[in-house]
Amino acid sequence: MAGEDKLRPLRERIDAIDAEILALIAERARIAQEVGRVKQEAGERDNFYRPEREAQILRRVRDANPGPLDDETVVRIFREIMSACLALEKPLQVAFLGPEGTFTQQAAYKHFGQSVQVHPFPAIDEIFRAVASGACHFGVVPVENSSEGVVTHTLDSFLGTSLLISGEVVLRIHHALLSRCRSLDEVQEVLAHSQALAQCREWLDRFLPNVKRTPVSSNAEAARLAAIVPGSAAIAGEVAARLYELNVLERNIEDDPDNTTRFLVVGRQAVGPTGDDKTSLLVSTGNRPGALYQILQPFAVHGISMTKIESRPSRRGMWDYVFFIDIEGHRDDPEVARALRDLEQKAQMVKWLGSYPKAVI
Amino acid sequence: MAGEDKLRPLRERIDAIDAEILALIAERARIAQEVGRVKQEAGERDNFYRPEREAQILRRVRDANPGPLDDETVVRIFREIMSACLALEKPLQVAFLGPEGTFTQQAAYKHFGQSVQVHPFPAIDEIFRAVASGACHFGVVPVENSSEGVVTHTLDSFLGTSLLISGEVVLRIHHALLSRCRSLDEVQEVLAHSQALAQCREWLDRFLPNVKRTPVSSNAEAARLAAIVPGSAAIAGEVAARLYELNVLERNIEDDPDNTTRFLVVGRQAVGPTGDDKTSLLVSTGNRPGALYQILQPFAVHGISMTKIESRPSRRGMWDYVFFIDIEGHRDDPEVARALRDLEQKAQMVKWLGSYPKAVI
Known about the structure:
Two copies of one chain form a homodimer.
Chain A (H helix, E strand, L loop, with lengths): L3 H38 L9 H14 L6 H19 L3 E5 L5 H10 L4 E5 L2 H9 L5 E7 L6 H9 L4 E9 L3 E4 L9 E4 L1 H6 L1 H7 L4 E4 L3 H8 L5 E5 L2 H6 L2 E4 L9 E8 L9 E9 L5 H11 L4 E8 L7 E8 L5 H13 L2 E9 L4
Parallel strand pairs in A: 1-2, 1-3, 6-7, 6-8
Antiparallel strand pairs in A: 3-10, 4-10, 5-8, 5-9, 11-13, 11-14, 12-13
Helix pairs in contact in A: 1-3, 2-3, 11-12
């Protein structure tokens, strides 16, 4: 081993660094325990986890990251350190949309680190119930889901809950074309959730222009069917190819290479401002002409960016609409507060769903 | 918030510590890059990941851990730091027995950290092929598996491979009794992999003494059947309850509360000694009386502890047996080397499967 002489001093330096990191992590954990004691004495036992403080720490780490590790990696390492320190007080119980191995579980770990206890639930409603009842501290649910089609369930669950949004998680999602066929020529039908079909439309138009597209309940179901229906192909994550013994005919067929899925973290408490927040609202209007235009006006007037709007029929009566709106900023920010006051004058109902830190990475 | 005055100095101290940790992790990453350059100059490009060095670092961290975080947590954090530093050079490609969400994937992440690319394969043989061909750097396979019943496939795969064992991973496994039934009284049949039935025998004898026990191909299959066969219950991980909408009739029914599953990491290169190693051997004997006794003698004579022995019929002919043996120590340890020399005199064939660091946690 020619390089051993050169390697020894480098390894000794690494060992010394590791000893320092270990001592610092231990000290950090002891201080975190002290923070827990102070909060308990102040009667803030339920407040042991503060999403706004966590987001600020992670942003500081991200912004101060000198390299060579990328921001995502250093944020993940610090997430683990914080997750471990927090678990000393009480491990967070986190409900997620199961089964195990789903993107939602991945999102839960990305947001909370590995030192939490995650619990799979089969339906969005059950996650809301588990959090509302106090059985879990937080729940993680998909909200703009490119592949599982549960967006509307999540939004509908907000109609009848007192839970608040305390965070968001963004995951990058790739689609592949999977089939028992050996080549694209043999494919006569493409199966996928309608959202996945939409996300890959340009690719399908170009490479499979005359092939039937059939929406099914989920991409997992599409993959299952592709394994038994001759001549069919599924749009799904590459993982499904192994599961159902399908060939990967093409990778990354999504039209937008930055295709992401967004998840919301729901909890029982409001989160303080961090300087880089989002606010989610549920707004209902009557079926008057110009109703939507009217409710958007306060945001325009006060210079508030809207990042998302989604309309849903309300459950209360025909002709009543409900809008889910995401805006930039925190309810405690002066401009946002003014816009919300104006909005309350114009809408039938405004329900504040939470102000929370934007996803750090 | 009564405690804010007391919290502020604690939080400032945490922020200062985080800045120090970040700087140290960045420095560690730069030195790791330097290590990579030195190795490359010395023509050791394939040797960029050294399991023995990693095990030594993790043991040092574990042994120096001053608390309050437990050893498992600090080892996991350092695993992530090392995993991230290593990925700067080249992310490790790791094959595991799929599908996603299995214990084997959990084992792969536990051993290599999150900064690796994991690839699910549907069969043990394919994992061996993926590693032998160089498509993946390492493979993770269950070897003493309490729930999936693939032990023999793994051992058989070693008969015909030149791959070497480069590590082991130990996971704790819990079993639950799952059923569509509402109570134990209604259960008429218990389904599970035969190993799971064996691991829960005392509990079954006590609480379901007159109920039929039916071995099936896996605990996952048992859970699937329990959802459709009236009056049946499955022994499986609690996770399966959500997946198949079963009731959890009882938790932790395994007789040994330290029930663990062991996984092996296979690679293409030998691993150096760390001072706390295991060696795995494949030994064949003729069908002579006392053959087994003879091959065990060298270990007794040289004071080597045997941690495991498993007999398998060889594929070469009737009446030929093959023994898989794990001993404590590394092939380069003098006592082990002497025992192996003696063993070679007594056995028909001795195949060294690898010497590797014992699992750190």
